[in-house]
Design a protein that fits this description.
Blueprint (H helix, E strand, L loop, with lengths): L4 E4 L18 E6 L7 E6 L6 E7 L18 E4 L13 E6 L4 E5 L8 E4 L3 E6 L4 E5 L2 E5 L3 E5 L5 E5 L6 E6 L38 H4 L4 E7 L2 E7 L6 E6 L4 E4 L18 E5 L2 E6 L2 E2 L24 E8 L12 E5 L11 H5 L4 E2 L2 E7 L4 E2 L1 H5 L18
Parallel strand pairs: 8-15
Antiparallel strand pairs: 1-17, 2-3, 3-17, 4-16, 5-23, 6-7, 6-26, 7-14, 9-12, 9-14, 10-11, 10-13, 12-18, 15-16, 19-20, 20-25, 21-24, 22-23, 22-25
Bound molecules: fe (ii) ion.
The site of fe (ii) ion has 5 residues, from loops.
Amino acid sequence: MIHYHKLGSVPPKHHVTHYDENGKLLMEQAMTRVGFDSTYSLLYFKVPPTDECAVSSMEVPGFCPIQPMAQQRLHRRHIRTQDLKTSGDFLTARRTVLMNDDVRVGICKPDTKPEHWFSNSEGDECWFAFDCGGVVESVYGILPFKKQDYVIIPKSTPYRLHCDADKSTFLVFESPSRIDVPKQFRNEAGQITMDAPFCHRDFRIPQEMLVYDAAKHGTGPYPLVVKHANELTVHEFEHFPWELVGWDGYSYPVAFNIKDYQPRVGIVHLPPTIHITFAGSGFIICSFVPRKVDYYDDGKGHKAIPCPYGHASVDCDEILYYVEGNFTSRKGIEPQSISLHPMGIPHGPHPGTYEASVGTDRTSELAVMCDTFKPLLMTDVADSIEDKDYHYTWVKREGGGK
Ligand SMILES: [Fe+2]
């Protein structure tokens, strides 16, 4: 995903014999994207991952299957995910709050150790670890992650996610397209350019293969929950299927910490898309990190306004997930709040924040933004935790209320 990587033992060429220590011929599995035309990895399994002995169904209410609400009134919205209570592991504690054909936005608050292996065949996932670190175990090996990391897990990767804390919180994006470094940050060789807001060294990749351990992984059968066509199907394997001797290629999980993002500042305010971090088809993910702010001053009374201007984004919906610090343009939001400012109605800074920003030289805000080209639709979960007054909070200053 970020660059070519090899881990463990692979043969000298593609599609040639490769034996284990007992002389058994290993099965190569090519994990390919867009048919055979895009990125791929070649994986060498100890046990072919095709020996299912049983198949059954499963549901996680609020996650899969999922449909948007029937009525979607046009509002500025504040979804208080800090009020969402869930329990279970990294799979059963997942809930989807906003969705369209290009991206789904969910929250996961696990409070148990992983009880499942999971594979999302509907697309890539991007997890943002709000408050804890942990480890992703996958067929590609062991990937430790830290608090405030993004962890991207490619489509159809069997994995499970462990958290360091007893209770933890994640923001999760899912997309049928690849979630990747934006094209403009790659040169013709695929290398991240020198003027990108990050470099290859900022991305962490599995460095250690997954080794089967009966105490950790059990004695089987080994169930894998696969998300496909808005359903969860449980495939049970007779033998532990996720131990490899090696793999190489361009498809694998990767971790990147939001505070390794190198923000841009202009002499006057730059558009929020200057903070772009990852992109998928029909959406982008941006990182707002602590930084110096815009600094224009002509000495004649005209200064830069660091707070974002009013904005009619007629082709995009915009969400912000607030992580920490004071967000320059908003009042009444807290860490874990999601604001949704949809196309069709303008939005802008809350009263007082625009004026207060003039003359400031830093912002401490830390937030994740997602812009989408198709409208984001609310789910019942989002409706149950929505601050229904948010749309009116711009007029309350003048005693208007509803
Ligand atoms: Fe905006």
